[in-house]
Write a structure and sequence with these properties.
- The structure holds two protein chains of two kinds.
- Chain A is α+β, with helices and mostly antiparallel strands.
- Chain A has helices spanning 12-44, 75-108, 113-126, 131-145, 196-223, 226-234, 239-269, 281-292, 295-324, and strands spanning 153-156, 159-162, 165-168, 170-172, 177-179, 182-184, 187-189, 192-194.
- The longest helix of chain A is centred in the N-terminal third of the chain and has 34 residues, at 75-108.
- Chain A starts with 11 loop residues before the first helix and ends in a 5-residue tail after the last helix.
- In chain B, a hairpin with a 5-residue loop joins strand 2 and strand 3 (56-57).
- In chain B, the strands form five sheets. Chain B has a five-stranded mixed sheet. A three-stranded parallel sheet of chain B has the order 4-1-5. Chain B has a two-stranded antiparallel ribbon with strand order 2-3.
- Chain B folds into two domains: 2-124 and 227-330, D-Maltodextrin-Binding Protein, domain 2; 127-223, D-Maltodextrin-Binding Protein, domain 2.
- Classes of the chains: A alpha+beta, B alpha/beta.
- Chains A and B meet through helix 1, helix 4, helix 8 and helix 9 of A and helix 1, helix 4, helix 5, helix 6 and strand 10 of B.
C-alpha cells in the first residue's frame, strides 16, 4: 500500500474511498463476467441471439387488444399490445383498490362495531390467501357460475352477461350511433366486452391490494395525533367533516409513500395474468419466447419494461408526496 | 414457474462454458452422474404422468427409460424433470436436463435456432379441435367467430392463427398456461373449442371431461406435429445414443422382439438381430456402452408397439389408433434406420 503518511490507512476518508472503489470494481467485474459468460455459452451452444426477432411477423393472435393488431403484425407490436393490456389492468386496479382500500381502512376505525369487525375480517382473510388462488377462484366463479352465451342473462336492453363476459353497446364514432350486441354464431357480435379474464384479474388484484391499502390507510389515520380530532370536534365539526377536512389530509402525508409500494406491487402482480389467460405483457412475452426461442432477450424486455413503469410510477408518487408534504416555513 | 426460468437463465450466465466444445461432454457427465436427467411434461396422460404410486408413466417417459437402459443397463436410472412448454428449451440449453422428451414438435426453427438436435420421432401427431357434441359442428371450417382455448407457449398458437387466416375466419384465443386450468375453462364452456395436438386432446378428454362421450375431435388436422426427443448441440456421441435407443425400440417391434420373448432370440440366425442384441459384439462398444444395450431396452422397457399400446393405445384410457404411428410395414410412418 503506497499511502502517504498524512492521509494514511488510518485516515477513515481514505479507507472509505478505497472500499468504495473496491466495491464498484467488484460489481463491474461480476457484471462483466455474467455478460461475457452468457455470450460465450450462447455462441458455443449455437443459440441465435439479438433483438432482430422484434421485426419479424408474430403470427399468433391476441384475445384482447386495445389497439389494432393482427397476426401479420410484428413481435414488437404484439409486445406493445401486451404492454397496453398490462397498463389497462394496472390503472383500473390502482383506482379501484384505492377507493375500496380507503373505505375498508376507514371502516376498521369505525365506531360502528359491525362495520369495524367486517372490515377486520375482510383484511385478515383476503391478505392471508395467496393472490394466485384468489385469481383462480374468481376465474372459476365467472366461467362456471355464469351461463353460456346462448343462455346469457339479459340485464338491460343491449347488455348481456355470460361466461364470455359482460357485453354492452359500443359507440361507433364513424356513424355516430350505438352498435347493439347480438348473438351470431358462437358469440356476441358488436358492442364492447369486459372479458372474464380481465374481470377475474381486476377483481383479484383490486380485492387483494385493497386489503393492504386498508392497513396503510388505517396506520396513516392512527398516526395523526389524537389532539387533532379532539380539536376538530371542539370546533363543532362532525365525525365525517373531521375525517374529510382534518384527519385525512394529514394522514395522506404518512400514507403516500407506503401506498406507492402497494401500487408497484399491484403492477407486478398483474403478471400472474398468464395463469388465467389474460394477454398481458408477460403472457405475450411467454408466447414470443416460445416461438422465437429468444428467452434472454424476451425476459430482458419484460424486466426493462417493468422497471421503467415502476420508476415512472414511483417518480409520480414522489412528486405527489412532495406536493402534500408539510412545507416548513 | 417464472422463478424456474430465471434459474435456468442464471445457469446460462454462470454455467461453465469452457468445456462445451469437447465431444462427449454430456455423455461423460451422464455416465459419471449415474443417471439421465430427462425433461418431461408436467402432466399429460399417456405421455408423461405419475401414476397413483408416483411412478412416471407414458410414451415420452419410456424413451427416457430406454436411454437409461442403454447407458447403464438399468431403466430406472432416470431423474424426471417436469417442465412447462416455456421452460423446456432453456432447461435443455442450460444443461439442467440431458434430453428433452416432452411431446415436442420437431420444427426447422427449433432445430436451427435453438442450438438443439432432434433425435427422431416417437409420435407423429397433428393439431386438431375438440368440441362439444351438442355444438353440432361437423368441421373446423364452421368455427368462424368461435372462442378457442389454447395452451400458452406452444406452436399450437401459431398454427391456430394461420389456419383461421388461411380460411378467412375470425376467432378469439383464450391462452392459458397449464393444461388443468385450460381444460377447466373449456369444459365450463368458456371456449367453444379447444385446440392442441390430437393426442393431447384425447388425453384432456379422458382426464378432465365430465363425460368423455359428449366431446368429439373434429376431422380436420391442421398441422404436422412430429414429436420426439431432443438433445443440445455439442455432443454427437450422446446424440447417437439417444437416436439409436429410440430406433432400437422401433426396430424391435419390426422384428417381433418383445420384452416377453427377447430371451428366446439367443440362438437366432438373423444377423441383424444378432448385432442388435449384442450376440455379435461391437456395436455397443462403438457407442461407448455395453454390447447388450438394445437387449436391456427391450427387456426392461419393451418395444415401441408395447409402449404405445400400454400408454396411449387400446390398453390405455386414451384409446388412440396406431394411425401414422404404425410401422412402415403396416402402412404407418414408424421406420427405424437399419442396425448394421
Amino acid at each position: 500500500m503506497a499511502i502517504s503518511k498524512t492521509g494514511g490507512w488510518s485516515d477513515p476518508r481514505v479507507r472509505g474511498a478505497v472500499y468504495q472503489v473496491l466495491a464498484v470494481g467488484a460489481v463491474i467485474a461480476v457484471g462483466w463476467f455474467l455478460v461475457a459468460n452468457t455470450i460465450h455459452n450462447l455462441s458455443t451452444r449455437g443459440i441465435v441471439s439479438g433483438f432482430g426477432f422484434l421485426e419479424r411477423p408474430a403470427s399468433f393472435a391476441i384475445g384482447e387488444t386495445l389497439a389494432a393488431y393482427s397476426p401479420a403484425d410484428t413481435f414488437g407490436r404484439a409486445l406493445f399490445i401486451g404492454l397496453l393490456n398490462t397498463l389497462l389492468v394496472s390503472a383500473l386496479g390502482i383506482v379501484l383498490s384505492t377507493v375500496l382500500g380507503t373505505a375498508i381502512g376507514v371502516g376498521r376505525l369505525s365506531v360502528n362495531w359491525l362495520v369495524a369487525k367486517l372490515a377486520t375480517v375482510y383484511v385478515e382473510s383476503v391478505r392471508n390467501v395467496p393472490l394466485l388462488l384468489q385469481l383462480f377462484l374468481w376465474y372459476t366463479l365467472i366461467t362456471q357460475g355464469l351461463p353460456g352465451p346462448r343462455e346469457a342473462l339479459h340485464l338491460l336492453p343491449g347488455v348481456w352477461l355470460s361466461n364470455r363476459g359482460l357485453i354492452v353497446p359500443a359507440f361507433d364514432w364513424t356513424s355516430l350511433s350505438f352498435t347493439v350486441p347480438h348473438l351470431a354464431g358462437f358469440n356476441f357480435q358488436g358492442g364492447v366486452a369486459l372479458s372474464p379474464e380481465l374481470a377475474a384479474l381486476l377483481f383479484g388484484l383490486t380485492i387483494y391490494t385493497a386489503a393492504f391499502i386498508a392497513e396503510v390507510v388505517r396506520g396513516g389515520i392512527l398516526a395523526v395525533p389524537r389532539g387533532q380530532s379532539e380539536a376538530a370536534s371542539a370546533l363543532g365539526l362532525s365525525r365525517g367533516q373531521a375525517l374529510r377536512f382534518v384527519i385525512l389530509p394529514q394522514a395522506l402525508r404518512i400514507i403516500v409513500p407506503p401506498l406507492a409500494s402497494q401500487y408497484l406491487n399491484l403492477l407486478k402482480n398483474s403478471s400472474l395474468a398468464v395463469a388465467i389467460g389474460y394477454p398481458d405483457l408477460v403472457s405475450v412475452a411467454n408466447t414470443t419466447i416460445n416461438i422465437t426461442g429468444q428467452a434472454i432477450e424476451g425476459f430482458a424486455i419484460v424486466m426493462a419494461v417493468f422497471v421503467a413503469i415502476s420508476l415512472a410510477l414511483s417518480a409520480l408518487m414522489n412528486w405527489y408526496n412532495r406536493k402534500v408534504a408539510l412545507v416548513a416555513r | 414457474m417464472k422463478r424456474f426460468s430465471i434459474i435456468v437463465i442464471a445457469a446460462l450466465w454462470l454455467g461453465a462454458g469452457a468445456a462445451t466444445a469437447r465431444a462427449g461432454e454430456t455423455f461423460d457427465a451422464v455416465k459419471a452422474r449415474g443417471q439421465v436427467n430427462c425433461g418431461v411434461n408436467t402432466g399429460l396422460a399417456g405421455f408423461a404422468l405419475p401414476d397413483d404410486k408416483g411412478v412416471w408413466r407414458g410414451l415420452d417417459v419410456d424413451v427416457c427409460r430406454a436411454i437409461a437402459a442403454a447407458m447403464f443397463g438399468d431403466a430406472s436410472k432416470v431423474r424426471f424433470v417436469p417442465l412447462t412448454a416455456q421452460q423446456r428449451f432453456t432447461a435443455l440449453q442450460s444443461g439442467e436436463i440431458d434430453v428433452l422428451s416432452r411431446n415436442t414438435t420437431w420444427t426447422s426453427q427449433r432445430d436451427i435456432e435453438l442450438g438443439i438436435n432432434f433425435a427422431g420421432v416417437d409420435y407423429y401427431d397433428g393439431q386438431g379441435f375438440l368440441i362439444a357434441r351438442k355444438a353440432d359442428v361437423k368441421s373446423a371450417k364452421e368455427l368462424n367467430g368461435a372462442a378457442v382455448c389454447v395452451l400458452a407457449g406452444t406452436t399450437t398458437e401459431l398454427n391456430l392463427a394461420d389456419y383461421f387466416r388461411a380460411n378467412k375466419m375470425s376467432f378469439k384465443p383464450v391462452v392459458i398456461e397449464k393444461n388443468e386450468e385450460l381444460a377447466q375453462a373449456f369444459f365450463s364452456n368458456r371456449c367453444d373449442a379447444i385446440t392442441s395436438d390430437t393426442s393431447q386432446l384425447a388425453s384432456i378428454r379422458a382426464a378432465f371431461a365430465p363425460n368423455p362421450d359428449d366431446y368429439i375431435i373434429l376431422p380436420e388436422i391442421i398441422s404436422k406435429e412430429p414429436l420426439g426427443p431432443a438433445v443440445r448441440h455439442g455432443d454427437d456421441q450422446w446424440f447417437d445414443l439417444v437416436k439409436w435407443s429410440l430406433y432400437a425400440m422401433i426396430q424391435a417391434e419390426e422384428k417381433g422382439i418383445t420384452s416377453q420373448n427377447v430371451d428366446t432370440f439367443k440362438n437366432t440366425d438373423d444377423p441383424e438381430i444378432k448385432r442388435m442384441l449384442g450376440l455379435t459384439p461391437g456395436l455397443g462398444a462403438a457407442m461407448g456402452v455395453d454390447d447388450r444395450w438394445a437387449y436391456q431396452i427391450i427387456k426392461q422397457v419393451g418395444n415401441y408397439g408395447e409402449s404405445f399400446e400400454r400408454n396411449v393405445g387400446k390398453g390405455s384410457k386414451l384409446k388412440l389408433e396406431r394411425g401414422l404411428n404404425a410401422l412402415w410395414t403396416n402402412g404407418g410412418l414408424m421406420y427405424a434406420m437399419p442396425i448394421r
